[in-house]
From TrEMBL:
Residues 1-126 form the HTH marR-type domain. This is MarR family transcriptional regulator. SUPFAM superfamilies: Winged helix' DNA-binding domain (SSF46785). The keyword Transcription regulation applies.
């Protein structure tokens, strides 16, 4: 039930922020905006999806003009995804909209409730990361 609630929350934020972007597309944009260019393999690992899924995802962002593919200067076989100026503008608008949506959202929570909420999320993330590590170890893919 908790997982369904979290997915609903994430999906609704993505739809409210930009009806034309999915949550994974926004993740790619935000990552490229803050971390710089990355490979498709990076996103496949981060999103726990196949490379072909990242290719489909990135194709949509390229066609919208939000990202571009850049060949490595040292290895032509290596291709990076890089945010464009138009992508930066979209990402900045989404951040502004996110801040607007969240204004006052937490005002009815006491400090104690916020502490419990944060501690709960931290614990959940810790458990999730442990499960992912265990799953990779069982699969023999320790990355």
């Amino acid at each position: 039930m908790m997982a369904r609630q979290m997915m609903t929350l994430v999906a609704n934020y993505a739809k409210i922020l930009d009806n034309d972007l999915t949550a994974p597309q926004y993740f790619v944009l935000q990552t490229l905006a803050y971390e710089g260019q990355q490979t498709s393999s990076y996103f496949a690992n981060a999103l726990n999806v196949t490379l072909s899924a990242v290719t489909n995802l990135s194709n949509k962002l390229v066609s919208k003009g939000y990202i571009e593919r850049v060949a490595s200067s040292t290895d032509r076989r290596q291709v990076y995804l890089k945010i464009t100026e138009q992508g930066r503008e979209v990402e900045a608008r989404m951040i502004a909209k996110y801040r607007e949506l969240n204004e006052g959202l937490w005002s009815d929570f006491s400090d104690q409730e916020m502490d419990v909420l944060i501690a709960s999320y931290e614990k959940m993330i810790e458990h999730l990361q442990l499960k992912i590590s265990q799953s990779k170890a069982e699969d023999g893919s320790n990355d």
